[in-house]
Amino acid sequence: MTAILFDTLEFAAKLKAGGFTEQQAETQARAMADIVEKQLNTKQEIQEQESRIEYRIIELKRDIKELELKNDAKLAETKAELVRWVVGVGLLQITIITALLLKLVNHL
Fold it and tell me: What 3-state class would DSSP assign to 3?
């Protein structure tokens, strides 16, 4: 935790000089010290939360990049398989048409 210097004695002395009783000045000094400490804790908690969020964003970006790379690899695989199928079907069609034409020519 970050320390902050808040001189409660000096604060109480200034309050007394301004007309507060000693008890009022001490109570005010303790209350102010509590407020300062709580504010400091709140700011530190916010900074820690921001750090955790930034780290998580970095992790998420890395995960997204991994998924994109995997997706690209699967897409390339699918394209290659599709090309093989198209070429195979094309060759099969050529073979069937050639066989039918030969049969037709031999039949005439």
Answer: coil
